[in-house]
Amino acid sequence: MSVYQVGASLFSSNIGSEHFVGLAGTGAAAGIAMVFYEWNSMFLVVVLAWFFLPVYVSAGVYTLPEFMAKRFGGARLRIYLSCLSLVLYIVTKLAVSIYAGGLFIKLALGWDMYISIAGLLLITGIYTVMGGLAAVIYTDTFQTFIMTVGAVVLSIISFNKIGGYKQLVHRYMMAVPSVTTNVTSSCGRPREDAFHLFRDPVNSDNPWPGILLQSSIGCMWYWCCDQVIVQRSLAAKNLSHAKGGSLLAGYLKLTPLFFMVFPGMISRALYPDVIACVDPVKCQEYCENPVGCSNVAYPKLVLELMPVGLRGLLMAVMLSAIMSSLTSIFNSSATLFTMDLWRRVRNHASERELLIVGRLFILLLCGVAILWIPMVKSSQGGQLFNYIQAVQGYLGTPIGALFLAAILWKRMNERLYAVTWWTRVDRKSQTNRHTDLTLQEDDTLSESSQQTPTTEAGISRWQRWFNFACGIPSSTAKIKEAPEISIAQRRSFLLETSKWRGFLNINATIGLVVMAFLIGYFH
């Protein structure tokens, strides 16, 4: 794939309906602080293309859990990371995307939310299943263009409506709903630091040390160690195209403040009774969510301000954002499940079987994600983007730290070996299980991180299941691994001319300077 296709696919895979709905809603509720996560992406895509990607290509892997297996040996980490990634896809991407999409369609067309979700999943699933990764990237390129144009149009109309940036600041700070509760004097009022990125480290809703660490180490998992994102970069023609595509995505990630957050804040300023509602009865009446209606800020703006023709354009923007996110999740999830999990169940599965299993697994993911929607709807005070960052912070940060240490520290090995005490061959040691739980230096893989425990022939049925859960093969089973990328392919991907290397390095420096300027201006 070329520079533009990689960059557009990276951007549209990240920017989905959860950003248009969630980021605008967070801006309406609490100001611009959360946009730091978007701007710091410029730094992280540079880290991905200049640091992580050459390592992945040199390792010759198709999935990132596969890289962990090659790095540490065995299969425990590979299976664990595959399962954890799938859980993260469900609770932070798939469920959030279909909820945001269903919410927008419900407000725009008046359909039942779950009927809207079913239609959305059906359309998206068809061209994902039929076309594979190539179809996903080509549609992402087109959808990125639609999203960008539509977001620019709505932003211009919104600022014209409110009278410019100064009027936005004034009217936003005065945007208080007419019906409030008597809990505190600040109930329903905007935060005094709403137009600042860095907030008080003790008494604010988003302390700046936490945001700084979470947006760096925590989001490193998303941009540098997540199958959905890295798969796009690996599809580039060569490393120069991957770097250029990453920079393009980084520049596009500097725009959400102007095209998503500010429109959300304008929506609150124009419709405070709806967007800023705090009374549960009124919120239930306005948006059928008693914890708050900030998530309807962007759809409300689209439906109220846009003329009929442009309203259709913004409908296309939202649907494009939804479908681009869903296709990316579907394709990457199917790859993870079939390559890292299903091959361990069916050692000699054919390509056709893997294809069918991947498609069926997509259906299972959709069902589980729909069941998770009520949790998304009610969490974090109804602020969708806060929910996303909270879950990613808890689960994604350790993964990012693990990948970073695995690449930077040669002596790091898999110190989870002693946890698998149940599978040890020595029956006598299995009877004293409590002593095996103590992690001593002798129990670790100090001599070699490439060892894989073996099991004897007469193991129990329970132990067989435990072996499978921990990714420990039996002595006779032989896993049919995916074909490795050839050395010639790896070398051709990593080759760069000095001209393009210098051009890309200069552009990366410019992008980081622009990011630093924006952060300094809005700090």
TrEMBL record:
One Pfam short name? SSF
Provide ranges: composition bias, Polar residues. 446-457
Q: How does it sit in the membrane?
A: Multi-pass membrane protein
- Which GO terms of the molecular function aspect are on file? D-glucose:sodium symporter activity
| Entries under Gene3D superfamilies matching the protein | Sodium/glucose cotransporter (1.20.1730.10)
Its keywords, alphabetically, are: Membrane, Transmembrane, Transmembrane helix
Could you tell me the superkingdom of the organism this chain comes from?
Eukaryota
Transmembrane regions listed in the UniProt entry = 20-37, 44-64, 79-105, 117-138, 144-163, 247-266, 313-342, 354-375, 387-409, 500-522
Q: Which InterPro entries match?
A: Na/Glc_symporter_sf (IPR038377), Na/solute_symporter (IPR001734)
The entry's protein name is Uncharacterized protein
Q: What is the native source organism of this protein?
A: Biomphalaria glabrata (Bloodfluke planorb)
